[in-house]
Structures
1.
Amino acid sequence: MKHSFLDQYSDRDSPIHRLDPRTKLVASLAFILIVVLIPIVNWQAFVIYLSLIVALLIISKLPPLYVLKRSLVIFPFVLMIAIFIPFFKSGEIAGSYNIWLWRVSISYDGLLILANVVSKAWLCILSLILLSSTTKFTELLKGLKRLGMPRMIVLILSFMYRYIFVLVDEVMRMRQARDSRNFGGARLRQLKTIGNMIGTLFIRSYERGERIYAAMLARGFDGEVRSLQRLNFKKADACFGIAFGLALASPAILLLF
């Protein structure tokens, strides 16, 4: 069955694709940290950072519609958390509204916090989309390992990404089998069927994990994932790192002058 992989555009050729994964990992982490730490009142900085990330997305030749769809996924989760802040944050009132028996007020400080959360979350997710879409997942894991991430965490991420699609296929086959048997009836019966499916999936996942681990041990697995491909930090990586660092520092430079 067809799945949408995180790194489905990682096989394209662009200057961003050719960078060392460690360079992109460090740059993405630095970008996220700077974006989170800068106050929302410095809106010029956010304009610069948005322009920077858009320029990198254009250079990487990623489809704009794909990037937009991926970035909008985060908004329901962000709004679920932050949508009530303008109503409960004290400060100067921006407006009052009657909702049935209640009268609610929106403050300017609350709206500022909401804008802060939404804008920062969108910039951060754009940087992560750029990272995951221009770097093969195996190279990302290798870069994380070379940067000092514990080996066990890298292994867990590797197997999770490798077999999550297998489990999705398992769920889709179970759903198809359920529908072919005329799934319906009372709500309680439907919930019971879904509960049985979840339990069956858990048991099948556990058994599959045991079989995979036994097969790996039989082939001499010692906890170390090896590959013939090596990471190379090139001159282009150094130039990109310096230019990206200057771009991140440009808002502070502009404020000084």
2.
Amino acid sequence: MQKISVIGAGSWGTTLAVLLGEKGFDVKLWTRRKELANEIENKRENTQYLPGIRIPSSVIADHSLKTVLEGSEIIISAVPSEFLRKTTREVKRYFKNQIVVSVTKGIEHSTCWRMSQVIQDELGKQVKIAVLSGPNHAEEVSIKMPTASVIASKDNNVGKLVAGCIATASFKIYQLDDVVGVEICAALKNISAIATGICDGFGFGDNAKSSIITLGLMEMNNFGRHFGAKRGTVYGLAGVGDLIATCISRHSRNRFFGEQLSRNKSVEEIKKSMHGMVAEGIPTTKAVYEYSKKHNIEMPLTCQAYEVLFEKKNIKHAIKDLLNLI
């Protein structure tokens, strides 16, 4: 039986731990807070991040990284992007050349690096790594709604092994080698989701929202191609598929964040109301905006999103300026 460590007990990390536990794997789930680990062990449920889903006994929750990583063969990294580097640095002490699967969708602000690059920077270039992405809301995967996603790895054997571990009858996995494209798409769709949330908040309707999604897809393609992303990735599950799901879903944290912004709530107020959930589109917007300005990549939607989020620009003025720019 393969031993798998899941680092991060948010909704997605917990969902994957449950999925793997139900498949018969020996799973250890790391939580930063000791009280959350105790709650999961006692109630067999993560009431804060994944309420209503029973966690099987094959999943052991613990706040000790040493205990969670001991003897594991695969590490699933489900830590929010802003905490990924620090957590991976802590993981390094107990790292024994396991396969690492990154499931975080974001870009590091200080470097504009993808999540797999951050992991490799901390664990070494030789690390065997795969990336899981696609339209895969935890709320639906956890109740076994039909879902299709992708596993991307430069090593075909690693990708095949990870896909085999994670795939189920209701969770279809496709294997790709375009790690760059998959991670760029995973990050940029969150910027568009914030913008479509603003559309929903103002009641602009489907026409405006579809225009925002289309513009977001163009920016995803422009930014991705700069880094060598494949066209097929952008227009596949990891790109347009995830973009649509994130922009229209009631489960989307980033869409929710945008909707709350349109109601004149501050960034701090919205973060507090999310009770520990993270809208990855916020740091991603800053990273992508700064990089695109430096390298002359045309990103009008990202530009207006940045000015709203970080320069307190009036949202209605931003919408007007966006219409004039495109």
3.
Amino acid sequence: MTSPTFHEGERAVQQRVGVAERMAQVGPRVIRDFMPEQHRDFFAQLPFVVAGTVDDGGQPWASVLAAAPGFIGSPDPLTLRINARPLAGDPLRATLREGASIGLLGLEPHTRRRNRMNGIVREVDDSGFSVRVRQSFGNCPKYIQARKPVWLPERLAANAVAHEAAQLDDAARRIIASADTLFIATAYAGSGGNGDEAGAADGVDVSHRGGKPGFVRLDAGGTLTVPDFLGNFFFNTLGNIAVNPRAGLLFIDFDTGDLLYLAVTAEIVWDGAEVQAFEGAQRLLRMKVHGMRRVGAALPLGWGPPELSPALQPTGQWP
């Protein structure tokens, strides 16, 4: 890659943690501006993909696209084609446009494989859209709960009902309280949703977070606190938050197919008694909810029984 691998926020977090010099060497070797064949084949076998975009007001959203395996293809190493349209009620219906920055996370939970691709939306049409690659890289299998997804087209709803509110309702709280997985979308402050204006480190990112059921603490005022465990030191999510605190969360109810989208403002809690109280936490993410959208039975996938990630065995729980 000819442009910087990490932007100022990512570099600042790496510097604080003491890995900046190492990551300056590692980053250009593992973050590519094209998709290797292994990644191209991987995306092609998935029945769903998670996406991160930004709306016209600058709010990031995490979304999910689903269809029969094979709905994603890669005609060349610089392009990913997604032959699916946003689900009913998904914020992606409003944010998907030509030239927009997008972050994609391909996840195969039952094998704990995941690959990331960040790029620019191209060729939006009635069948789907294409993405021009800007960053392509893999992630380790840590913290992923193993559950096998199955495409269930009979569950595809054209007019699912979306429940919107400024604060969480009881149903949303139940989804959060039992969650062992969430997805978080963030954006570099300079992107403005249009990644053509800056280098490859600019744009939108979407990432996975996993923990033991209940790893997301929710207080009465609607603030979420999530432990941040040892990772790959890229700090894509935390680096974005360091310069732009707005984020979007996606929770999936794997039993019902309900989807919960949250607009939040996030801050990083670097140290202190709360961090020390959660075994395995390197730091915490504290997120204040400003808006929610809950869509019932929206995801046309069934799931096998979950198997806790071995990496979570030594981690704690909220007191």
4.
Amino acid sequence: MDHHLLEKYNTLESTIHKLDPRTKILFSLLYVLTVVFTVPGDIVKLGALLLVIVSVIIMAKIPLIYVFKRSLVIFPFVFIIAMFLPFFSVADGSGFIELKVLGLNLSRKGLYIFWNSLFKAWFAIMAMILLSSTTSFPLMLKGLALLKVPFILIMILSFMYRYIFVLIDKAQKLNRAVKLRHFSLNNFKQIKIIANMIGLLFIMTYEKGERIYQSMVSRGFEGNIKLMDRLKIKAVDIVFSVVVLTVLLFINLWSFL
């Protein structure tokens, strides 16, 4: 597993790719906040927000099918969290839809909130996929630093992104070694071996972290993210920001009125 899995389309040439990472980060944040504060059941506003994110994805020349497939990952998690909402009563007196299965009743308002949660999570994850597909991770970290995000959070993200691939490779090697040596075990012995693998992986991760820290200190690492290119706001960033703010403001005013 390598970084190209997540940075497959970072090298494309498009207007969105050329934007300053701060512009893209702020756009993603503003878009997600607009989605989150959308009133449940406002289909028109949700449709307009979907059109906005799809338009930006097309501008970035990223295949829609790629974004769609990756965004599907969020649905199982959101479904598990929101699956009980339709069965709870709400204070607005919207009533229930009676079901003949298992004696359950569905709340109309709960159904609205359930579908609203699914679509909001989907829109938000598409915005994050767009951000990660048009911005390299070092540039994103530099943009976060210039936006005054706490330094400790940036360092955690940096090390997590760098060494999660190393950790996955080690886990895959351990799993392959177990399969080659123990191909016919009962369930109890398999559980014992998996527990030993988790413990060994934890120890290996801890020791590697110590070695990495000592190597960085010996090389004079001071915690600064250094890039060859200096980031600066360009005319295209200003135009894009004005257009996005105008569109989102229009959508919110239209929905409100």
